[in-house]
Amino acid sequence: GAGVSQSPRYKVAKRGQDVALRCDPISGHVSLFWYQQALGQGPEFLTYFQNEAQLDKSGLPSDRFFAERPEGSVSTLKIQRTQQEDSAVYLCASSRWQSTDTQYFGPGTRLTVL
Amino acid sequence: GQQLNQSPQSMFIQEGEDVSMNCTSSSIFNTWLWYKQEPGEGPVLLIALYKAGELTSNGRLTAQFGITRKDSFLNISASIPSDVGIYFCAGLGGGSNYKLTFGKGTLLTVNP
């Protein structure tokens, strides 16, 4: 079956622009996670959804970052008024049921803010 | 945010050699995981460890969960060119049962 997919794969934005990154989790997966991976670093947790409920958003760097999963499937990570320090790969992961189940990662969206 | 201490940062080895990398933390984790990431892709799970002292193998890969629950190592035996990539350790637990905490990665290059 299909894995986690993300779009776009690459996004270039001018500083100050808003961007929206999409994640399609594995069908039927209840839990969905967003991570941010800066160049040369490991991924860092941003936020966690169980179905449509956002249970943890403690990793979001600022109030410019907003994530939603309105129907408990597709999720969107939105970054408003992008800054250069937002440049990173944004990874989405999903797990089948419990949050402790194996997290399957998508290929990521590489965001470059000029 | 917190990241685990992973070493070495990079390794250049000849095909056929064995590789060892490790990860330490100041915090206790309930689960240790090892992932591999290739260019343009997300991390792929290689091995998961759930119990202190556990030693688990997956083909040519062997990983151990340290007794103190603050460390783990990964060994790759008889390396081959397709082992090239970045290997990440990750911990789960220590106050969160879903938030993965990753190391900075070990870049492995295998010369044929």
Name its key features.
heterodimer; A: 114 residues; mainly beta; 7-stranded mixed β-sheet; 4-stranded antiparallel β-sheet; 11 strands; B: 112 residues; 6-stranded mixed β-sheet; 5-stranded antiparallel β-sheet; 0% helix; 52% strand; globular
What does this structure look like?
The complex is a heterodimer of chains A (114) and B (112). Chain A has 114 residues and is mainly β. Chain A contains no helices and eleven strands. The model of chain A has no long low-confidence stretch (mean pLDDT 94). In chain B, the strands form two sheets. In chain B, strands 2, 4, 5, 9, 10 and 11 form a six-stranded mixed β-sheet that branches. Chain B has a five-stranded antiparallel β-sheet with strand order 1-3-8-7-6, with no helix packed on it. Chain B contains no helices and eleven strands. Classes of the chains: A mainly beta (114), B mainly beta (112).
Please describe the biggest sheet of chain A, giving its number of strands, its sense, and whether it closes into a barrel. Answer: 7 strands, mixed
Number of E-state strands of chain B: 11
User: Helical residue percent of chain B?
Assistant: under 10%
Secondary structure: helix percent of chain A: under 10%
Strand content of chain A: over 45%
User: What structural class should be given to the helix and strand makeup of chain A?
Assistant: mainly beta
How large is the radius of gyration of chain A?
13 Å
Amino-to-carboxy terminus distance of chain A: 37 Å
DSSP E strands of chain A, number: 11
| Helix/strand order of chain B, N-terminal first | EEEEEEEEEEE
Binned strand content of chain B: over 45%
What integer value in Å does the Rg of chain B equal? 13 Å
Q: Uncertain regions of chain B: pLDDT < 50 for 5+ in a row? A: none
Count the helices of chain A. How many? 0
Per the principal axes of the C-alpha atoms, what is the gross shape of chain B? globular
Total helix count of chain B? Answer: 0
Low-confidence residue ranges of chain A: none
* Multimeric organization: heterodimer
